[in-house]
Amino acid sequence: MRKLTGFLLLSLFLLTASNLAVSAQTRKQNEKQTDVLIRNATVMTAVRGTLENTDILIQNGKIAKIGKNLKASSNAQTIDATGKFVTPGIIDCHSHAMLDAINEGSYSVTSMTRVRDVLNPTDISIYRALAGGVTAANLLHGSANSIGGQNSTVKFKYGHPVEDFLVADAPPGIKFAMGENVRRTNFQPRPGQEPRYPRSRMGVIEVMRDAFLRAREYKLSWDEYRAKVAKNDKTAVIPRRDLELEPLVEILEGKRLVHAHGYRSDEHLNLLLFADEFGFRVATLQHGLEAYKIAPEIAKRGTGVSIFVDSWGYKLEAFDSIPYNAYILWKNGVVVSINSDSDERIRRLNLDAAKVEKYGGVPEEEALKMITLNPAKQLGIDKRTGSIEEKKDADIVIWSAHPFSVYSHPEMTMIEGEVLFDRSKDIAMRDEMKKEREALEKLDVNKAPASGGTSPKIPTEKRQADRDDADGGNQ
Amino acid sequence: MSSKFKVQSSKLLKSIFYLYLSVFICGQISVFAQNDGSEQNVTGKAGTFAITNARIVTVSGATIENGTVVISNGKISAVGANASIPAGAERIDARGLSVYPGMIDAGTNMGLIEIGGGVPGSVDVAEVGDMNSNIKAILGINPHSTHINVTRVNGITTVMSLPVSGVISGQSAIINLNGSTQAEMAIVPVYGLVINFPRVTTFSGFNPVAGPQTVDFSTAVKNRDKKLEDLKKLFSEAENYAKVRDAYAKDRTLPSVPMDLKAEALLPYIRGEKPIIFNAERERDIRGAAKFVSETKVKGIILGGQEAWKAADDLKKNNIPVIYTNIYNLPVQDDDPYDYLFSAPMKMAQAGVKFCISTGNDGSEVRDLPYHAGLAGAYGLAKDEALKSVTIYPAQILGIADKFGSIEVGKMANIVVTDGDLLEPRTNIKHLFINGRMLPLTSRHTQLFDNFKDRK
Q1: Contact A313 B427 (CB under 8 A)
Q2: Which residue of A has its CA nearest to B382?
Q3: Which of A145, A161, B273, B363 could be disulfide-bonded to B268 (CB atoms 3.0-4.6 Å)?
């Protein structure tokens, strides 16, 4: 009972808190956006160096103009950024924020599953990520399976309905995984439970081979069917749709990006060779803690690598990771991004990027790219975001100081010109939030029955998000 | 082997053999040349050193913009703009560089865990049982752990390493990150008694069928109080044990009790001679720990301390400092301000709570200590306080400030020379001294880097 009370209080509070936190900023979501002019900033473009005393004019959510002494219309919102730094919004190429479930671990091939179906747009992690300057992310299925579920590429439009989060023109992708997590090294079966195949690195690649051979045959059945239809052959029988194999066919056709979790260089190389054999390109090696050992092989195939900047040693396959990984890969011409894979770490990716200047000496702009333009490239969204350039989406962070300084923090984060995090407003709102919390706690419904409250109703729906998903936003 | 080989060998085979031999020998030589002591940790060079033309951030006093630090016999023997340099001292020109005291992380499990996930044979941080007062971290610390070199080359020279399990986890050790034996590393081999302060929790266990089980709040408080009574009872039993043993030592005709290692181990802590380190995060638990300290008259330290600033009055009244380990943690409640744990050190400073900042990490990421302090600086803590929170403040809390934590004459020479602000992630460490030994800036990571950086 108490648990329920607490839960009700929490969910009530969550709804109000999240609405409050963004209401001011999202009110105009259906109105035409006013122009925004950021004045006199130090702009780190991520492509054309750092521009001092520079203005950025934002119109209709896009960067309209970059230059000095820009003029804006009289009703434009002007932000004085004197003494402050501006960067593109940070993009995290490996996150599980917003996900109400991460692994469908019952099979080792779950290509039919989609994280799209479990996105929670009220997850507080989104707001915290915005407060760390992150505007977009690759939301991935977990790493329990050789071939996991389909990912979602999102922008963190906190306060918007879940549909708005999805980057509509981002190419679809899928999670692959190899190594300890797939062979369930640290997950012993419960008594009486059969261990799941595969239990070794040998088995992992066989699971993939089996799936892709089936996908090839499935593709062939469709190719033959379509050929017959084209020839008006009345004997054509439509093949049975296979939701497991369809995404794999898209991989074979180069239409779906493969994001492959792994640690050891040998297993990553085995995957690259496997992809060569089946004629597709792996979009990114995720984690790739030993990728530096096979940098030339990775570079040759145009595969990107998305790494932790310096995490190591937390399991055996992470023992050979070194913080020079980014530098060696970069020097070999690999597109490198630095990811968080964590709702905590996502808040300080700027400092992770700073570290690659220290370890090996990656130049500043290349380091900045590793958390902006490079992840955008890896996700196929670099035409619209990832750098400060005219005509791109106005996904922008204003920092109190140089973003690679430990003493800096984001003051404002915007997506497509809409301010979704504003530190001064956040601080100003704290008293109001506190009062609201106190008021909520006094409500009869939130009092324990023992102290005079009525028994809470069992919530029939867990979160607003579930309704958004099920009914297309019909609340 | 080789004579047999010669009998059989043709010229070609012979030349292959010698080629192989020379490669083998060269390989060995290069291994020795590269050896930085990751395996045996007998590293560095003793001697007299003079770091000249340096910006000296003493921490304890004003920063000297251009001065000299002299190291001899393992200690800092002179500091100042005009410090005289002994004849024969090895000079290190530090023009453009800064000298700092080595950083101290007071809340790690260094040396007790090599690989936490999936390699149980390398994990020695937790003992079976709830009341392990006699357990000593120092006896489990691996002086040859790869974490040690990786950590120190980022400017951390001293750590406290803690056991973690049960209610009484055991006793911590304060160590320098250099030495080939536990004794060589030890600063204070047995320092504090770690107690996971019993929490008020409505969670009462996990049922494999029904899932998590809960109790109501008043029962949770009762459960906590029962555990505290058990602890107090254990304390008074140990005191009684000591009385009986002392009396028996004086008069052999009296009845005695057999030796009890756990009771023996508790005595210095019960008597307030050594501190008890209470692991506690939320305000309620921290206040509970403070009350326990005042009732039992022990010396207390809080480890964790998320909401220590809220309990400032109780902490100050009972002279309890905080080892804060929550910079790289998320706020617990969804409606906590997003910077709740980043800004806690600033709030502790404002409230007058004695604190230091720690990674709370088991080993591999202790090297991030400067960024934990720096982030507290990004969210309100003054920069000089941030620096103190990983140098002199932990030294004070650990009772070693007479020898560590600042650049002062007479202190042990744990010194880091940098090309910038010690807490900045882009800053490079240029020279490193522990106990006056100049250490190579190498680790398993630099070795792997060297091995692979030029692979084509």
Answers
A1: no
A2: A407
A3: B273
Contact A316 B119 (CB under 8 A): yes
Chain mean position to CA B22: 44
Give, as one character, the DSSP assignment of residue A345: G
Quick one: A376 exposed, middle or buried, by C-beta within 10 A (0-12, 13-18, 19+)? buried
**pLDDT tens, position by position, A5-54:** 444 444 444 444 444 444 444 444 445 678 999 999 999 999 999 999 99
Residues of chain B where predicted confidence (pLDDT) is lower than 50: 1-14, 16-40
pLDDT tens digit sequence for A352-408: 999 999 999 999 999 999 999 999 999 999 999 999 999 999 999 999 999 999 999
- Helix, strand, coil shares of chain A as percentages rounded to 5? 35, 20, 45
Cβ-defined contact of A351 to B208 (cutoff 8 Å): no
Residue where the block lists tokens 């044979």: B121
Confidence band of A191 (pLDDT split at 50, 70, 90): confident
Helix (H, G, I), strand (E, B) or coil at A292: helix
DSSP code, position A114: B
Predicted local confidence at residue A460, as pLDDT: 56
User: Tens of pLDDT along A80-95?
Assistant: 999 999 999 999 999 9
Exposed / middle / buried, residue A426 (Cβ in 10 Å: 0-12, 13-18, 19+): middle
DSSP B403-415: TSSS--TTSB--E
Contact A340, A354 (CB under 8 A): no
Task: Assess A296–B contact: CB distance below 8 Å, yes or no.
Answer: yes
Instruction: State the pTM of this model.
Output: 0.90
Q: Are strands B173-176 and B156-161 parallel, antiparallel or unpaired?
A: antiparallel
Cross-chain residue pair A358–B427, CB shorter than 8 Å: yes
Chain B residues within 8 A of A348 when measuring between CB atoms: 371, 375
**Residues B350, B316 contacting (CB under 8 angstroms):** no
